[in-house]
Backbone:
């Protein structure tokens, strides 16, 4: 193949420097394409394949058979529909994840922007502040999640103590145990942990705005508030959108923190926790792959919405 | 001639000592609950000193479900990283095909000394995949000082009695300690809740979720009554947050002196009586209460030692297992860590009874133990257990009534069963 195209193109070698360049580019890109195909393409294709089988996790425990769409939707002998698409637990998990992602990302963006503006201004002890703000983000998630779980503990935890003194909790209650507050208690942990990361991304954007623009605005007599809405925000938008996309996609596949704190409790089960329960605990690799594929599709929908409606540019 | 003999003797001696020093390194995924890691270490250190091999003790997850998940991944990948696994009583059906047959590695006399029911449970496809190490049964812990203070002479024998006593003690103690609570147990949505709830159901005569023939039996009036009774505890004599408690959470509350009664496994006794415990010398242990029309029962727990089928040192690993499960080591662990032996004779041993006086009542509880339906449900046990625990969890968190939750569990487990377990 390569040889024949080579011999064909030889007579028109002068035809274009463009063609040669394109070919060089292709050769330079090839290693990346191969690596991507191996580490991203193959697992994805294999997951799609597995989702149409009844493969078990423990390969010793039986043969794998192709069962079509039965993992997704399947009419039993008694006429009832079963499968992932009609599993109420799955839809609870999807709904939990969406609520968690939207609320936590909005809060993180607002807080992160505030942090970034503070760090970016010329105040005393700025260097120390910068370092301090990153501490929550630097602690491994499992460690901080366990720490928060203890702080939320009803009997010995400090947050429950505050809750009691504020009259929000009765003895024996905790924000995690009440089914209507559990998800928001987890959102609080996520905001605490990830707002600094948001601040870091936005700080980079802020520092890219030239200082002379503000000087000009100052001369023209624009107030600080006006400067923020007319100057800072529009110029920060590209950085803000990239940060939003990162965080949303990250939040949609959240697993570690809710799992450490609440494990398989349904009121805080996320899509990834549901996937793990089926893949690992129940050992149903086929069904779990179907779950993974749906998660992939849901996240893709979010990405498409972002990229098309906001015209986010990653360059 | 003499010189040659000397040379040979010397060489032999050197090579022997070299072999000894080199030894084999056996890796062991042991315990992490309570004082588990340290007790494992004492046992493996003794074996290492005796044989010249070394043991690498691994840190394992506290939660049993997490442990199984990890081990399933390792065994599924045919990994030889871990030689010896400590496995739960419900796992032989799930990972048994990746474990070696140990029936020839343990001395016959030792094998014959165990509880026959546990040996039978650990036999998978005719192979002994786990040697019984310690057994477990749910127990009722209570505060002897508070019982005396409120004029009670004996531990409660029915759930109604427990409710009455806990209500009175809680009301009295709240004056001094606003966080005081009557009864704590494992109410988080995980395997521990299956164990606790099975005790409630079985102690009301409500069966064992799935009967030995594989018939789904969970939706029956006695089971509904049982779940209803305990469900009414949450928010009254038990904190609402008991639905976030695993074993260690319950123990922390009880051991800090903030609870009158606790349901837990035997390991909590030794820790509660340790020198730095605020409730040292104030702990009593009894069999769990019974419900109407049933008798007291304990969920059979317990841990076995198994050898990875892909292990590179199966001989040494099996030797370690035989050593740790021997009567002498089980006796040491019973005295030092209140781990209940798998050898009936040790429950009559004077030294053991001196260190853990409650072993007498534990022996009775174990004789009436309820096994989780792991044998009947085989590889689908986790799914069945999760369906049951989630249903009970919904009742404890007041999302569903006991009737609706158990009817739902019945339908879901039947669906999981499909054409058969």
Residues:
């Amino acid at each position: 193949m390569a040889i024949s195209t080579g011999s064909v193109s030889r007579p028109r070698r002068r035809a274009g420097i463009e063609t040669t360049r394109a070919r060089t580019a292709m050769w330079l890109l090839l290693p990346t394409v191969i690596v991507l195909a191996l580490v991203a393409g193959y697992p994805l294709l294999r997951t799609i394949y597995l989702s149409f089988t009844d493969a078990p996790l423990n390969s010793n425990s039986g043969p794998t058979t192709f069962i079509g769409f039965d993992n997704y939707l399947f009419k039993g002998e008694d006429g009832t529909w079963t499968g992932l698409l009609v599993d109420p637990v799955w839809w609870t998990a999807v709904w939990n994840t969406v609520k968690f992602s939207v609320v936590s990302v909005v809060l993180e963006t607002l807080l992160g922007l505030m942090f970034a503006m503070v760090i970016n201004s010329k105040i005393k002890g700025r260097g120390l502040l910068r370092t301090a703000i990153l501490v929550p983000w630097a602690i491994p998630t499992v460690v901080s999640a366990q720490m928060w779980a203890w702080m939320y503990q009803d009997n010995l935890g400090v947050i429950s103590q505050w809750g009691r003194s504020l009259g929000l909790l009765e003895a024996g209650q905790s924000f995690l145990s009440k089914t209507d507050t559990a998800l928001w208690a987890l959102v609080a942990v996520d905001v605490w942990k990830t707002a600094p990361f948001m601040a870091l991304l936005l700080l980079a954007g802020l520092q890219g705005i030239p200082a002379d623009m503000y000087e000009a605005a100052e001369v023209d007599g624009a107030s600080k508030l006006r400067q923020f809405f007319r100057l800072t925000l529009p110029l920060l938008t590209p950085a803000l959108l990239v940060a939003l996309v990162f965080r949303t996609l990250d939040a949609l596949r959240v697993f570690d923190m809710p799992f450490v704190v609440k494990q398989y409790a349904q009121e805080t089960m996320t899509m990834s926790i549901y996937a793990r329960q089926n893949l690992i605990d129940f050992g149903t690799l086929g069904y779990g792959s179907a779950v993974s594929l749906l998660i992939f599709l849901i996240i893709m929908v979010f990405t498409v919405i972002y990229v098309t409606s906001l015209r986010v540019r990653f360059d | 001639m003499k010189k040659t003999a000397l040379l040979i003797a010397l060489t032999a001696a050197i090579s022997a000592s070299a072999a000894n020093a080199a030894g084999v390194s056996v890796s062991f995924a042991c315990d992490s609950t309570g004082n588990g890691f340290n007790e494992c270490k004492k046992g493996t250190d003794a074996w290492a000193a005796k044989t010249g091999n070394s043991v690498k003790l691994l840190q394992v997850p506290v939660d049993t479900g997490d442990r199984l998940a990890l081990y399933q991944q390792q065994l599924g990948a045919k990994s030889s990283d871990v030689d010896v696994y400590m496995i739960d009583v419900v796992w032989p059906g799930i990972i048994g095909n990746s474990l070696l047959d140990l029936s020839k590695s343990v001395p016959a006399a030792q094998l014959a000394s165990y509880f026959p029911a546990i040996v039978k449970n650990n036999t998978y496809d005719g192979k002994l995949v786990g040697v019984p190490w310690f057994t477990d049964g749910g127990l009722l812990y209570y505060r002897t000082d508070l019982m005396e203070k409120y004029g009670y002479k004996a531990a409660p024998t029915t759930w109604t009695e427990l409710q009455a006593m806990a209500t009175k003690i809680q009301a009295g103690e709240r004056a001094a300690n606003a966080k005081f609570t009557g009864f704590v147990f494992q109410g988080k949505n995980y395997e521990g809740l299956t164990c606790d709830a099975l005790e409630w159901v079985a102690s009301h005569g409500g069966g064992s979720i799935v009967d030995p023939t594989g018939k789904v039996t969970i939706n029956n009036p006695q089971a509904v009554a049982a779940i209803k009774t305990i469900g009414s505890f949450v928010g009254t004599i038990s904190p609402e947050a008991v639905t976030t408690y695993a074993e260690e959470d319950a123990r922390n509350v009880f051991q800090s002196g903030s609870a009158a009664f606790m349901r837990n496994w035997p390991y909590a006794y030794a820790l509660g009586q340790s020198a730095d415990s605020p409730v040292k010398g104030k702990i009593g242990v009894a069999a769990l209460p019974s419900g109407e029309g049933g008798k007291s029962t304990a969920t059979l727990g317990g841990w076995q030692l198994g050898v990875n089928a892909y292990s590179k040192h199966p001989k040494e690993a099996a030797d370690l297992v035989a050593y740790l499960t021997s009567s002498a080591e089980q006796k040491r662990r019973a005295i030092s860590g209140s781990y209940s032996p798998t050898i009936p004779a040790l429950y009559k041993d004077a030294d053991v009874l001196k260190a853990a006086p409650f072993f007498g009542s534990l022996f009775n509880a174990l004789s009436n133990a309820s096994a989780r339906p792991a044998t009947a449900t085989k590889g689908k046990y986790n799914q069945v257990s999760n369906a049951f625990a989630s249903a009970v969890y919904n009742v404890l968190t007041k999302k569903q009534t006991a009737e609706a939750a158990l009817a739902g569990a019945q339908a879901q487990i039947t669906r999981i069963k499909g054409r058969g377990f």
The first strand of chain B starts at residue 25 and ends at 29. Residues 20 and 52 of chain B are 6 Å apart (CA to CA).
